[in-house]
Amino acid sequence: MLSYRKTSLDNVIEGLAGASPLGLLGRLLPVRPGHCARRSSTSIHRSSGSCYQGFESLPLRQQARENPENSSFIDEEATIILSAARAPMSAENAAARRWVPWLCCYSGARVNEITQLRASDVKLIDGIPCIRITPEAGTVKTSRERTVLLHPHLLEQGFLAFARKKRGNAPLFYSLERQRKVDRKNPTYASVGNKLAEWVRGLGIKDSTVAPNLGWRHRFKMVARTVRMDPEVRDAIQGHAPRTEGEDYGEVPPDVMLSEIRKLPKYEVAAGERRDGRQCDQRKRAEAVATS
After folding, report:
1. In degrees to the nearest 10, what's the CA dihedral of 68, 69, 74, 76?
2. Does the predicted model carry a pTM greater than 0.90?
């Protein structure tokens, strides 16, 4: 699913893995997502083994069991969700299901930071397309506004064209006209996030150690580390607290952030089959009859 060109770093890792006793370092060195999958049909994140044959390794999910909400989506899960997001679907579900998973995937943002986006939050800064995450639109955990540049793959898929269909403070992923109460305790954007979580579980993502929305936030961090994204820029993108007082000074220039965002590999997934609507229900009933 993730495409990389083999680099000298890969050669170094393979060399260390093949040597003894330096092969033990393979357990400590990060591996590009999907790198092991080319050598084995078993995903590196699921397998109890690894690329480094002869040495016992601990699966990523086992390492995270002490904190059940601290797991990231594995490649297979990410593929299922992103493929379903590109599938034909009813107009009622299309906006959120089509774009929120992809935006979370490439930004590592909290789901409600994305579902609360308004048309006015999609901007150009120095000619570079970006989204503005701000407390004005809804809840932001740190209460600090931040700007996140859009990954080129989102532009290829037509996100800007989608965003331009709305104007001003109109929400991107739900309709103001369909809100029951504007001052409801559970904001509409939060409800959209909850419904997305239910949808993801309905796709077969049942592992209780990965949260159906937060899994993107953890996956972004994992992949960003793998591609050697600058830690300071990585934290700025996700809205995490700076590691030092000095890192809290100034801002990350757009061109600097863009160069780091481009390090994220492009998720090449085909559109899945339709899973909602009357046609889908009719197909499910026909399949049920055929197997009964």
Report:
1. 90
2. no
